Every structure is written in C-alpha cells, then in structure tokens.
Input
Amino acid sequence: MALSAHDAFSAGGGSRRRRGRRSRGALSEINVTPLVDVMLVLLIIFMVSAPLLTSGVEVELPKTEAAAMEDQNEHLTVSIRADGSLFIQDDATPFSSLAPRLRAMAGEETKRPIYVRADGRASYAVVAQVMAALSTSGFTTINLITDTGGPSSGGEPLRR
Output
C-alpha cells in the first residue's frame, strides 16, 4: 500500500509538527494617538502662556554669547525702543525725567541693580546717554540685558 506524502504527515505517525505560531504574543507597538493628543495640548498651553512671560515693552534684544543670569525678584528696568523712546518698567518716560524718576523709585538704595533693555536697532548714542545718566545719578549697578545664542567669539565661556 502506497502512502502519499500528505497521508504520512496527517496520520499522526510522523514526528514533525507544524511550527507556525497559532497563539498571539504580546503586542509590542505603542499606541501613539494619546501621546500626540497630550503633546498638542501642551504645545497650545505653552504657545498661549509664552507671550505673557515677557516684559511689557516690546524690544528686540541683541544676541550675545553671555550666559543667562539668575532671576532677581525686585528690579528696576529701563527699556529703550528702536525709535529711542524710553520706558521705566512699563511707563513711557522722557529722557529729562529719567534720573529723577529712578531715584524716586529706588529711594536710598543706589546699590539696587538697574537693568537696561535696549532694542538691537536702537542708536548707540541713546543707549550711551541713558547709561551715563544712570551712572551720574548715583546708580552703581547697571546691567545690560541681551538674548543668549549670539555669535561666538571663539573664547572659553566664563565659569562662575
């Protein structure tokens, strides 16, 4: 009696078993839809809140390679726009009343730091005049605020 190859394996007498996977293993893929949803919500939150974190006067700060400073809670800020207009905190101020207003705001604390935020397109003469007026008014700690990420001079960064 002759057996075909099909009959020999289906009769159960053969030692070969089928090696196919019939049971399903654990699914190793990540469902990214909830991840994308959460990331889009976070993106919207940061896009809405980012403009609220900046100071009130709109200036385009020049970029430098200087490191960021620690945040000071109480500080006086003088902002200089590209057209030369001056602001103390968020209030427009003419140049002639700059020093008296800052002295009135600082009181007896001439060691209190003054932060100068000048637009990168502002005239160097205006920035120099403001800094000279602050210096002659008795303020000894005058800081220029810039953006980080400017061109590198090729030197080593300062370590504090």
